[in-house]
Amino acid sequence: MNFSQIALTIIYFLGSRTVAITADATDDSGSTSKEKGDFCSQWCSGLTTTGTIVSRTPGACKNFYRHVCKKQNVRTPAEENDPDEISRGEQSYLDKELMKKIKSLLELNQEGQEPDKSASGDSAEAVDIKDLAVRFYTTCIQADTSEQKENVKKAVQEMLEKFHLGDWPMITGTLQVKATEVLKNSGLRPVATISAVGIEENNQYELTMTIPHARFAPTPSILKSSNTNSNATVRYRRLIRGVLKLFLPEKQASHTESTQQDEANESSEEMLSDEAKKDDDLSNVVHDIIYVEGELAKITEKSRPSTESASISTWQKKLGEHFPLLTGLQTDFKKASLRLEPEYNLTLHRPEYFTALANFLRTVQPRKLYNYLGWFITRDVADGLTVDIRKKLQLFLHEASKPKIPVNLNGDNCVRKLIGAHGLMEKGITYLYLRTFFQRPNIPKVDKFAEHVRAKFSILIKENSWMEDETKNKMAEWMNKLNNHIGASEEYYEKSKVQNAYSYVPRLQTPSLPLYFFYFRENNFLQMLKLCYTPYDKHNIWAALPLDTFGRYSEFYKSIEIPAAVLQTPFFDVSAPDSHNFGPAGTLIADVLSLGMTEEGGVWNTILAGDYKWSEKTKNDFNQRVRECMRRQRANSDNQRRKFSSEDSIERKAASIDKEVKVVDHITIRVSYSAFQTLQKECRCPETEAVLAASKLFFTTYVKSQCDTESEQQEHRVNYLLSRYQEFGKVFRCTEEDPMKRSDTCKIVPQTLHADMASPKDT
């Protein structure tokens, strides 16, 4: 490659990423000669250790997956240091490793003291974050053995008082205030989903409201059939009664518990019929709750999808005095110490729902609404109440086909409560993880991998023979707009911002799991409100969370998402040379790109096609190539039958794997290996044997990242993929008789993708 000497500061673009560098020399990709020299020096030095490590390859050509993923429970010290072998007994290995690391940050040592806080930094802010996380975790793992009904009841009452619902459940009597006043005091969350949504046209977050979407709520279809014979309805009523039982006198609660045990053996029809005849305290409240939820479900289903924006005062006039829109919203904004003015803009999704809701509030009995509001607030922390309530919640969620919750709160389950999209303390735990376990200097290395993989992907788009020119131009534009999101965004590294993210969480004098659940979720809601009417920049948003353990493509943000939690062994070993990490990390990047390309093109799902939809001719030509690729070859002679016998075995075992997966895998491995070979040639590493060994290591480390000893399908998927890749057979010198050397009938990827091939034909 030719280099030109330049002595000035330049700006270059990789997709939409802008990077400022000072260069003495640049190559065609914009890298400086010094950067390239440093990278190649490390790359080549890493190769010198690979020759003896992967020199032996017995079994590689018979079953490469089993050759790499040794199925055994114990690994010897020699195997621990041998990248040719790996043993994993868990289905989600990255999740397992992530759990171990986070628990090591939160668990108490043998003396009952907190672990060394220096791992989270030396500032008071960082220590506070860790202290808060440790307190929650310790309370969580002890909850199943230390819970007391009276303490849980007091915690729920403390929560409800924050919403002026301290008399819940209201078993008898009537309220002396209007329904409008009840809803104004509690806020509007029980009847609407309130969000801060980034508006790209206005470059700011704006307040939006839509129909209710509570995590543990029944779907409208279940609520509409609440008086019919359905298991989901029965389970939901039992959940409500289980929570209400907390508020009954001990004698009556014991009687109710005995009754509920009898109900567990009843059919759905018998239970509903029996409950309809009851006039006990629980039934009255249950009927109030079910009535309000059923009415909300009806108006939800009748409302048509549409969106309208107007000032809050304008909406208030349209909805009338029975809907406390402004005052109800101000209730929550005041909790966040925020001002909400009548002239502020508000977007309503499904405005017909809110019109019907206003009419409903005009006629509903205040006591019924009061009991529903108290149930809504309490239900939101049901996964943090007693074991019995969590069991009832889990049974209902199972019948309602909704995401499940852990019943037993062990260490792993308590960590899962903290992280993820609905995590109680996602940002704080991420901050601690990044400071302790994640090395930011590795991001440029992975970015370098992405740069070479993207370059090869651009060649695939430019030189394949099945895309029309119009589609090629679209996909080239798509490649230019792609962002690399690797690791975590800057906000997760800034200590003050992370601490401020928990400014509404009080320090509890007495640890209480329900109150931790409540205050964390309340805090996260109020933090979201703080975004309203603040600047919004779509390019600063990352679609994936740093502790996600999978790579993904974001069609909305046009980004490759490789979260920090993915960049751990076996996808990225911080102690290994760069050349050892390219197999799993580079292939992961190529996989995300392949998924993004087909998703944008609308290849598999035309309804969900992205902004760069392929032409019909391109899709037809591509799908024709796919059919040819999937077609089995027929044997016309005894020699061919013997040859195909081993191939048929791999083919049959992989028959259940979706063709979409096979095609994406096909593109992914070829793009990634081609990028790897280009790096090898550019760096001009002198040791020939080491270079060959590195090629073996590419496939070995890639498969190592796919090892799953509990999934036979994973074995069939990997063997199917590699046995059809001629470069794999060349590297491991597989013969025509070997099962791992099969015929490749695919014509999807241009052969020019490979540095040592000049033919324009597709493979």
UniProtKB/TrEMBL annotation:
Q: Does the keyword Signal apply?
A: yes
**What residue stretch is flagged as signal peptide?**
1-20
Kindly give the SUPFAM superfamilies that the UniProt entry links to this protein: Metalloproteases ('zincins'), catalytic domain
Q: Which cofactor is essential here?
A: Zn(2+)
- The Peptidase M13 N-terminal domain sits at 61-488
Gene Ontology terms: biological process: protein processing
Annotated Peptidase M13 C-terminal domain residues:
557-748
Which keywords has UniProt assigned to this entry? Answer: Hydrolase, Metal-binding, Metalloprotease, Protease, Signal, Zinc
Q: In the UniProt record, does the keyword Protease occur?
A: yes
Region listing for Disordered, in residue ranges: 251-278
The record's listing under Pfam families reads: Peptidase_M13, Peptidase_M13_N
- Ranges of compositional bias, category Acidic residues: 263-273
Return the GO cellular component terms, semicolon-separated. Answer: plasma membrane
Write down the Gene3D superfamilies for this protein, in alphabetical order: Collagenase (Catalytic Domain), Neutral endopeptidase , domain2
One example GO MF annotation? metal ion binding
Q: What domain of life?
A: Eukaryota
Q: Which PANTHER family match?
A: GH26575P-RELATED, ZINC METALLOPROTEASE FAMILY M13 NEPRILYSIN-RELATED
Family of this protein: Belongs to the peptidase M13 family.
UniProt protein name = Gluzincin
Native source species: Rhipicephalus zambeziensis
